[in-house]
């Protein structure tokens, strides 16, 4: 899966030059990601407990207790910091400071991962300030460093869960919100988890963030000359969801890449007061 990322990135950059700025730094990280092989311990989950959780609308894990290989993620984070700190980026000094912290301070990386998973913005700003980095940069690096471990976990558990019975706007594996959606060729809508990448079917006319089903307050817009890419929004909660119609494309990249390749749609949504 991770090996394919680089190929998809190269194709996207060729077909949609506008995506180049967002995808090029990610391509460098993806090349480093291929080198890690996270250890997933077999996750023992009792079938009865899993079924009950599913029926009651509880995800398998919460973001706080995901059994991830944090050591593999910490090694990868050091590789990211070392690699980016040696480039001519404006924030290279901060990246070097962060690398020193990651090497010398026990538990620094793990703390960063936990803060990211808890979505504790205050703590994130604090930890970023200590190494003179933009909180968004440190958050992105932490998130990407966790990807191989999170995917390994998702692959280990997703065969055991029946997402067909899952009718909620949050992820059945980790409880996170969707960051994108797509229409399959069958016309069904799937949501894509912002953290673990799990996908599950969800009604077409319903807001996953507040369950609003009122057609008057739900809608979408699209960017000019971009067939198959839409932004669905909800005027009740003012949230939006970028959505790809797979019928309109010959090939669709993994949605974490499509998400990066469509940042212009986020800007458009923000301009229209959606968040
Ligand atoms: Zn998830
Ligand atoms: Zn809503």
TrEMBL record:
Domain FdhE C-terminal, residue spans: 205-274
Top-level taxon in the UniProt lineage: Bacteria
Keywords, in A-Z order: Cytoplasm
InterPro entries: FdhE-like_sf, FdhE_C, FdhE_central, Formate_DH_accessory
GO molecular function: ferric iron binding
Gene Ontology CC terms: cytosol
Domain FdhE central stretches: 170-204
Membrane-crossing segments per the record: none
Biological process terms in GO annotation: protein maturation
Protein name as it appears in the record: Formate dehydrogenase accessory protein FdhE
